[in-house]
Amino acid sequence: MPSPRSKAKPLPSFKHSGVLLGLAALLLAGPTSAASVLATPEQQAFDARAIQIRKNNPFLLQRAQLATAYLTAHGAPVSAEASSRLNGAIDELVFSAIQKAVNNDPDHPGVYWLNAPPRDWFGLKVPGGRYSYDNPDNIYRTIPVDGDSRYVIRGQRRGNGPSDVTFSLISNPNYQQSIAVLSGKDLVVAADGSFTITIDNQPANGRINHIQSTPEAKQLFVRNNFGDWAEETADALSVTRLDAPSRPARSDADIVADVRTNLNESTLAYAVGTLGLKTYINPVNTLPQPSSSATLGTLVTQASTFGHFRLGDDEALLVTVDTGGAGYFVLPVTDPWTVSVEPDNHQVSLNNAQAVPDADGSYTFVISPKDPGVFNWVETAGLHEGTLMPRWQDLPAAATAGSGPAIAARVVKLADLPHYLPAATRYVTPAERQQQRQARADAYAQRIATD
C-alpha cells in the first residue's frame, strides 16, 4: 500500500538552522495526538532546505564518479536488473550527503532524522536518503558537535522505548569511526522517561550519561532500534549548545561544499569499502561468520556479517541464525547497491521480535523472490539479486567458546523447502501474509504521522 500522505502545512520561514534552537521545547513537550516525535518543526525546516539544495545542485561530476566506483566494486557482469537500480541508489546517496551537510554546523546544532525512505509530509516530497545497508528497524539521527564546545542533549521516552539505543560520537559523518559510545544499557532514564546527556572535553567526574569529546569529534550519531514496530517509538531529542556561537550559521554555499566532500568520501567509504571490501569480495549465496563491527562506519557494539545473493524464481536462500544471546538481531535484505526496497510495504527484514524462533531457540529464514508461504519469509521485493547485512546487538559481555552468534546459508529449490525446514515451521495463508504486510505498513506509518 502506498505511504499515507499527511496534510499540507505551511513551511516555517527559517533562514538558517541557527534559528531552530528556539524550537527545542516543542520537542520535549510531548505530543497531544498521534504525531510522531520525528515530525518536528526542526525536521521540517531541515528537509525543506535539503530539498532546495538538491534542486539547485545536480552534482553531476560526483554522481558519475560514484556510479563508476559502484560498478567497479560490484564487478562484471552487472545484470539488467541490478543496472536498473543503480541510478536510484546514487540519487539516494546524493540526498543523504545533502542531509548530512544541512545539519553540519556545530555552532548551530540541530537533531535531524536521515538515512530513511522517501516520504510525503508537511507538504514536502522528501526523497529517500538511504545508503550502505540502511536498517528498516532503525531511526538514524545526527547532531553536529565540536570537541571544544559543551552540549546538552535532552530526551523523552515513551513507554519502554526502542529495543536498543546508541549514541556514537564520531570523527567523520561518512566513515563514522567511533570516538566514544553511550549504549542503551548504560543510559540512565528517569521514571518519567526523561534523560539528559552531556558532551564536552572533560571527564564525567560523577556526571551520569556523559560523553567525553575530543578535538576529532564532528557528530553525534544516534541509533534507535525497533523490535516491535507497532509498540516501540523513537525517543524525542533536542540539543542545546552551552557556548555562544563563534560564527554565523552556514550559508548554502558552505553546505554545497560539504556535500561535495561527503560525496567524494562516499566513493571510498561505501563503494570501495562497504560494497567492494566487505560484500562482493565474498562468494555469492554465502555468509561469513559474524565479527565485531569495528571498521567502515558500522556500530562498534554489534556483530555483523556481509553477503550477496543471486536466486532464480524457483530458488531460496535458507538462512539459519544463532543469536548468541543477543538482545536484538535482524536479517535485512537490500538491493545490489545496499539500499532497502520499500521497507514499509515489503517484508524485506525480520528481527527477533518479529520472527518465530525454532524449537531450539535459533531462527530459520527463507529469502526468495517468490512467497514460499513461510512466516519467516524475508522477501526480496521481486529482485533476484541483492545484498545482506545481518546484525547482532546487545550481546553478552562475555561469551564462552562456541556460544557466540553464528549463521549458515544455503541455496535450495522452493519445491524442496519442506525437506530442509524444521518440523514445527510456521506457515501462512495468502490472507495471513496480507495481514502481516498490512500490519507492517501501519506500524511504519506511525513514524511519519504529523497529526
Describe this structure in words.
The protein is α+β, with helices and mostly antiparallel strands and 451 residues long. It has two domains: 17-265, no CATH class; 283-448, Jelly Rolls. The chain has helices at residues 24-28, 41-56, 60-74, 80-102, 252-280, 417-420, 430-445; strands spanning 112-114, 119-121, 124-126, 138-144, 151-156, 164-170, 178-183, 194-200, 210-212, 219-225, 236-241, 291-292, 302-304, 307-310, 315-322, 328-334, 349-351, 363-368, 377-379, 385-388, 391-393, 406-413. The strands form five sheets. Strands 12, 13, 14, 16, 17, 20 and 21 form a seven-stranded antiparallel beta sheet that branches. A five-stranded antiparallel beta sheet has the order 1-4-10-6-7. A four-stranded mixed beta sheet has the order 9-8-5-11. Helix 2 packs across helix 4. It starts with 23 loop residues before the first helix and ends in a 6-residue tail after the last helix. The relative contact order is 0.16. This is DUF1214 domain-containing protein. Keywords: Signal. Residues 1-34 form the signal peptide. Residues 431-451 are annotated as: Disordered.
